[in-house]
Design goal:
With 502 residues, the protein is α+β, with helices and mostly antiparallel strands. The protein has 3 domains: 104 residues, no CATH class; 154 residues, no CATH class; 223 residues, Sandwich (Tick-borne Encephalitis virus Glycoprotein, domain 1). It contains 3 helices and 29 strands. The protein is rod-shaped and about 160 Å long.
């Protein structure tokens, strides 16, 4: 029995050294999980009778198990390198369409845009809706990215602007010279159906109220007219004309004050029976002496602020006492202002073959405060065509493609799998495992959901082999091997001594 026990010890020590050597050899292998040889004792007969029952007859390898503990995360900077931080496995489709499971996150793109591992297996995941980011299927499929064609252009359908108009701004037509129509303006490039730029411009002109004329003014609230590129020339012409009218109105207003004072003096003189007096005027005015003191001024001398809305403006904005936007008016079919909640802009493409298009204009956050004119937000939802420039993978496994036009689209999501008994998985090489009856069927999900770990893009999970521990284990296994050799040697010497008896 001594030879058999020693021989079993040599065999198990050899296998143990094989396991340790394999661990040491793969100390730098990405996603590698260290293995451990587990021993069990051999006995002659556990149910036998007599003194020999249950005697040990050596040792055997009960199992070689892998330790699925977390490996260190190493930063690589390659966006297609992915590390799992926590529980779970990547799902890979092999050439024979079978599914393997791995912790090795070294992925590449093939010539068709498929995401593959180093041995050509396809990475599996869930397809997503590019606009909503929600899964379109719960069945994992091979993942790919659009490398073969550019991202198509998108027509601008909505423009959003957030801005403040200065409350201190004077009525444009009352300033000498008039405030330029372009002083308070902004623009943004929209895009037509072919991705060609179509500039969208907005210009703001304050038209009321005029504090000096508010009693007779048609515009009695804080009001701004809005022009765009198509109405800019008309607006400039109207502003010049309104400035002339405003100057005359100012003169008439001053004369009205003078004549009112004169009428008051005459009323007092007539009541007292004294001679009518004539005040001295410093500016040209109708001769007060030719007017009946009690007759009202002719309408031509009354101050009236012009209504400039029906002169090319796209919209009119009114603000309440707190400086917030109150109402938006647009020109109706009769040329009259009509309140609207859905303003649009008419834009023209630089390509005559493309028809005009009208994106919506969101300006409901506009304000009029006592600060300078400022644009705090100006966005539009269109873009030109773009080529793929990069791929990003988030911690929840969503794959985002980045294009040269600055756009990004979420196209898919990595899937993960886990098992009730990971020790039941069978290693098949290349860092992959296959499911077995002992492991049970895979439980699928997305990274970060439930017990599944999160992903780290641009990083890899290192081998969890503890090299120092393995070297110590190797010395221990060596001592065990040597001891078993001594067992056999000693048994041989004893047997030789017995044979040499005479």
């Amino acid at each position: 029995m001594g030879f058999q026990s020693g021989l079993s010890g040599l065999n198990t020590s050899t296998k143990n050294l094989d396991v340790i050597g394999n661990n040491i050899a793969n100390a730098q292998t990405v996603g590698m999980k260290a293995s451990r040889a587990e021993f069990s004792a051999l006995v002659s007969s556990a149910l036998g009778a007599g003194d020999q029952a249950g005697n040990g007859i050596g040792v055997s390898i009960a199992a070689v198990t892998q330790q699925f503990s977390q490996g260190n995360i190493s930063i690589t900077g390659n966006n297609l390198d992915v590390a799992i931080n926590g529980t779970g496995f990547f799902q890979l489709q092999l050439e024979d369409k079978s599914v393997a499971y791995s912790r090795d996150g070294q992925f590449k793109l093939d010539n068709t845009g498929q995401i593959i591992s180093n041995n050509g297996a396809h990475l599996l995941g869930f397809p997503l809706n590019a606009e909503t980011g929600s899964p379109t299927s719960v069945t994992p499929v091979p993942l790919s990215v659009p490398t073969g064609s550019p991202l198509p252009a998108k027509t601008t359908t909505a423009i959003s602007a957030r801005f403040n108009l200065p409350a201190k701004a004077a009525i444009a037509a009352t300033v000498v010279p008039p405030t330029p129509i372009t002083k308070y303006g902004t623009s943004i490039n929209a895009f037509d159906s072919q991705g060609l730029e179509a500039p969208a411009s907005l210009y703001f002109v304050k038209i009321g109220p005029n504090p000096a004329l508010v009693a007779d003014s048609e515009v009695k609230v804080d009001t701004w007219d809005v022009f765009d590129a198509t109405t800019l020339a008309t607006g400039e012409a109207v502003l010049a004309a309104d400035a002339t009218v405003a100057a005359k109105n100012k003169t008439n207003y001053d004369l009205n004050i003078k004549n009112t004072e004169f009428n008051t003096l005459n009323e007092v003189a007539i009541t007292a029976g004294t001679v009518k007096a004539k005040p001295t005027f410093t500016t040209a005015a109708p001769d007060p002496g030719t007017l009946d003191p009690l007759e009202p001024l002719p309408s031509s001398t009354r101050a009236v602020e012009p209504n400039t809305f029906a002169t090319g403006a796209k919209y009119r904005l009114t603000f309440d006492a707190s400086g917030k936007l109150d109402k938006i008016y647009a020109v109706d079919d009769n040329g009259e202002p009509a309140e609207t909640t859905a303003p649009t802009l008419l834009l023209k493409s630089t390509n005559p073959a493309i028809p005009d298009f009208s994106p919506t204009l969101d300006i409901k956050e506009a304000t009029q405060y006592g600060t300078a004119f400022s644009i705090t937000e100006l966005t539009q939802d269109g873009y030109t065509a773009g080529e793929l420039t990069g791929i990003n993978i988030s911690e929840d496994g969503k794959i985002t493609t980045v294009f040269s036009n600055g756009q990004a689209q979420i196209v898919s999501q990595l899937s993960m799998a886990d098992f009730r008994n990971v020790q039941g998985l069978t290693p098949i090489g290349s860092g992959n495992w296959m499911e077995t009856a002992r492991s049970g069927q895979p439980i699928q999900g997305a990274p970060g959901e439930g017990k599944f770990g999160k992903l780290r893009s641009g990083a890899l999970e290192e081998s969890n082999v503890d090299l120092t521990a393995e070297l110590v284990n190797m010395m221990t296994a060596q001592r065990s091997y040597q001891a078993n050799v001594q067992t056999i040697k000693t048994q041989d010497q004893a047997l030789q001594a017995l044979v040499n008896l005479r």
